[in-house]
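Reminder to self: C-alpha cells first, then the designed residues, so the page reads top to bottom the way the pipeline ran.
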C-alpha cells in the first residue's frame, strides 16, 4: 500500500470518525466499547501490514468507561485486517493484533487486575 493511499485513508477515517455520522459506511466500520473501568484517551487502528500507528482516531476526544464510539472507514478502503492500540489517560497502553473488521461489528475492551482483553462480535 503506498504512502499517499494510507494517508488519504487515515485522513478519511479520522474525519468521519469525529463527524458523528457517515454518509456511506465502510465495510470495516465497528463500535468500540470501553468496559475497562478507565478512560481511554487515544485509539489507533492500523492495517496489519503497516508498522506505523499513524494518527489517534479519537482526536481530542476521550472514551470514558461504559461509553462507545463508532469508528468509521472510507467506503473505498478494501483492507480488512487491522491492529488496535489504546492508550488510557494515565499513559498505560494495550494492543491487539489482526482484527478482521470486515466480519465483526463490535469490539469491547476489558481490564481486570492488570490483564486486558477484547471480546468481539
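Designed residues (121 positions):
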Amino acid at each position: 500500500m503506498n504512502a499517499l493511499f494510507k494517508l488519504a485513508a487515515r485522513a478519511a477515517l479520522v474525519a468521519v470518525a469525529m463527524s458523528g455520522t457517515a454518509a456511506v459506511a465502510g465495510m470495516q466500520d465497528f463500535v468500540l466499547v470501553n468496559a475497562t473501568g478507565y478512560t481511554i484517551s487515544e485509539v489507533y487502528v492500523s492495517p496489519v501490514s503497516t508498522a506505523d500507528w499513524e494518527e489517534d482516531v479519537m482526536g481530542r476526544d476521550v472514551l470514558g468507561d461504559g461509553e462507545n464510539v463508532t469508528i468509521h472507514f472510507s467506503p473505498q478502503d478494501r483492507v480488512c485486517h487491522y491492529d488496535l492500540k489504546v492508550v488510557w489517560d494515565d499513559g498505560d497502553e494495550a494492543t491487539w493484533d489482526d482484527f478482521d473488521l470486515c466480519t465483526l461489528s463490535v469490539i469491547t475492551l476489558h481490564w481486570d487486575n492488570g490483564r486486558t482483553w477484547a471480546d468481539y462480535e
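The beta strands are 30-35, 40-47, 68-71, 81-88, 93-100, 106-112, 115-120.
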